[in-house]
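Hi support team,

I've been running sequence recovery on a batch of backbones for a student project. Most finish fine, but this one hangs at about 90% for roughly twenty minutes before it completes. I'm not sure whether the input is malformed or the queue is just slow. I've pasted the structure tokens below so you can try to reproduce it. Let me know if you need the job ID as well.

Thanks,
M.K.
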């Protein structure tokens, strides 16, 4: 089923985004009947700008967290299973503290974030999950000591700070998020990583025989984006190759005329490369060493 492909994408995606900011344990096993936490995140001890970079996801990750993403709407039994994982982690931490004769502060215990595309009113009511006045729409918190929230991704407002969560939504929500991801500046630290994971998802979906209409639409959305990115990568490779070739020409001409490249000659290579080849080549052939250094150093 393609659901497992999407689930794996969500785990890989969260791991990729969170790794720079702390320790990520994907598919961490917990005691009792074999259960695996999708993503267990422990932030670095020093402060970071994770909230500024990753928005709402970054706010969730300012404390130790369990992330459980669902491709389809999480059912009550699945949410109960997530709560069991959280309680088993808490029990393990408490046992470690007892062995060390130490105490655990409530604020040090991990939080559970259940990421589901949708959540019905009856489901939220059944778990006593409610919005908070200081939180964005779509985030529903259970009782305080449960340290758990259900995040209905499709209810999140289409804001930059929710982008990194809406990427793992479905249908039009995910497609709009991909549009916003594409529009980010090329120097955004997570744009390229997110796109590469989406391309991997695209490749995995292409080889499945039981695609649904939503999967086919996602493939159609990603196809031109992948082609555009591939062409840009080829052009960038050609540009870098050309630059490397021009550098070799400059270095070889300097070596032929003046022997070994010392610090003074090395220092004029970049300024020379700022000129087109038809300009720097005659200068390298005609000017003396002293004239080149005086002009370009």
């Amino acid at each position: 089923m393609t659901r497992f492909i999407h689930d794996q994408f969500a785990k890989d995606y969260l791991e990729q985004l969170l790794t720079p900011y702390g320790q990520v344990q994907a598919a961490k096993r917990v005691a009792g009947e074999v259960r695996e936490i999708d993503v267990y995140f422990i932030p670095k001890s020093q402060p970071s700008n994770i909230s500024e970079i990753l928005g709402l996801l970054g706010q969730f990750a300012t404390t130790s967290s369990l992330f459980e993403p669902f491709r389809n709407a999480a059912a009550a039994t699945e949410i109960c299973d997530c709560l069991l994982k959280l309680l088993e982690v808490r029990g393990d931490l408490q046992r470690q503290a007892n062995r060390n004769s130490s105490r655990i502060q409530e604020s040090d215990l991990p939080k559970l974030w259940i990421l589901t595309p949708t959540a019905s009113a009856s489901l939220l009511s059944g778990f006593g999950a409610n919005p908070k006045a200081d939180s964005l729409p779509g985030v529903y918190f259970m009782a305080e000591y449960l340290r758990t929230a259900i995040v209905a991704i499709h209810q999140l407002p289409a804001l930059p700070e929710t982008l990194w969560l809406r990427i793992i939504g479905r249908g039009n929500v995910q497609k709009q998020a991909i549009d916003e991801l594409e529009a980010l500046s090329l120097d955004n630290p997570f744009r390229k990583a997110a796109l590469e994971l989406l391309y991997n998802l695209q490749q995995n979906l292409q080889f499945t025989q039981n695609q649904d209409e939503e999967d086919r639409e996602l493939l159609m959305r990603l196809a031109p984006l992948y082609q555009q990115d591939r062409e840009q990568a080829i052009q960038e490779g050609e540009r870098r190759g050309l630059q490397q070739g021009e550098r070799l020409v400059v270095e070889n001409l300097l070596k032929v005329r003046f022997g070994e490249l010392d610090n003074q000659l090395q220092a004029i290579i970049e300024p020379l490369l700022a000129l087109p080849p038809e300009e720097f080549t005659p200068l390298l052939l005609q000017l003396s060493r002293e004239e080149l250094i005086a002009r370009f150093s």
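--
Follow-up from support: It reproduced on our side and the slowdown came from queue contention, not your input. The radius of gyration is 27 Å. No action needed from you.
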